[in-house]
């Protein structure tokens, strides 16, 4: 099984194509939307999360609620695209409009410089629009489909945060998968140690 993503942060939307799924697996948009909603929650979310309401559109590979065995395509619309239609236009635009949101200084700690060097871009927007946290939207969608496949095989997945900024949770016992799912989902930082949760939030400000 493999997946490919495409799309820019302020473009029309984001796409993922998942290849290698078996035919006949039940799959609905709501199976993916649960994890897309989950991605937008939690502590420390930025302003972009308040703009977007991510919903998956299954555009290929599924018929009558079941996979066909062919690649599955998922599209997630970028609502913020309406403000960026000229800047991120697919079609050519006048030079003065093209230069209006040009990014000439690479940001420290980002992929701007190495991306510009690799692809020969003078406008770092061509890099930063792709190397963006927004792109993780369709990675989550692909992950939701992988989780669905595992569930069909009788396998449940759970995870939790152990440490943020040097603040480490102190677990005193083993937890079942169901307990991890329930407790971590109730925590804004996905931590099982509720006593350490607020301290973690302070470190993550």
Structure description:
- The protein has 205 residues and is α+β, with helices and mostly antiparallel strands.
- Helices cover 34% and strands 16% of the residues.
- The protein is built from 8 helices and 8 strands.
- It has a 4-stranded antiparallel β-sheet. A two-stranded antiparallel ribbon has the order 4-5. Strands 7-8 form a two-stranded antiparallel sheet.
- α1 packs across α6 (136-152).
- The longest helix has 17 residues, at 136-152.
- It is globular, with a radius of gyration of 20 Å.
- It starts with a strand and ends with a helix.
Strand line-up across the major sheet: 1-2-6-3
Continuous helix count? 8
Overall SS class: alpha+beta
CATH superfamily of the largest domain: Chorismate synthase AroC
Rg is 20 Å
List the helices and strands and how they pair.
Layout: E1 2-7, E2 13-19, H1 29-39, H2 47-51, E3 56-60, E4 62-63, E5 66-67, E6 72-77, H3 95-98, H4 112-119, H5 125-128, H6 136-152, E7 163-164, E8 167-168, H7 177-186, H8 194-203
Antiparallel strand pairs: 1-2, 2-6, 3-6, 4-5, 7-8
Q: Keywords for this structure?
A:
Chorismate synthase, AroC fold, alpha+beta, 205 residues, two-stranded antiparallel sheet, 34% helix
Outline:
The protein is built from 8 helices and 8 strands, in the order E-E-H-H-E-E-E-E-H-H-H-H-E-E-H-H. The protein has about 200 residues and is an alpha+beta fold. The longest helix has 17 residues, at about 135-150.
């Amino acid at each position: 099984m493999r997946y490919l993503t495409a799309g820019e942060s302020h473009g029309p939307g984001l796409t993922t194509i998942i290849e290698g799924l078996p035919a006949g697996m039940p799959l609905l948009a709501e199976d993916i939307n649960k994890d897309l909603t989950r991605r937008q929650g939690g502590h420390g979310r930025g302003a972009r999360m308040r703009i977007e309401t991510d919903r998956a559109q299954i555009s290929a590979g599924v018929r009558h609620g079941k996979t066909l065995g062919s690649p599955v395509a998922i599209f997630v619309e970028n609502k913020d695209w309406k403000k960026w239609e000229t800047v991120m236009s697919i079609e050519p635009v006048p030079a003065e409009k093209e230069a209006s949101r040009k990014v000439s200084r690479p940001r420290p700690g980002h992929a701007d410089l190495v991306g510009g060097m690799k692809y020969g871009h003078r406008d770092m927007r061509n890099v930063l629009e792709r190397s963006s946290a927004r792109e993780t939207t369709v990675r989550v969608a692909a992950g939701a489909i992988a989780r669905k496949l595992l569930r069909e095989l009788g396998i449940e997945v759970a995870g939790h945060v152990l440490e943020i900024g040097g603040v480490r949770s102190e677990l005193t016992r083993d937890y079942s998968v169901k307990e991890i799912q329930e407790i971590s989902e109730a925590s804004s930082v996905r931590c099982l140690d509720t006593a350490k949760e607020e301290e973690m939030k302070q470190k993550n400000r």
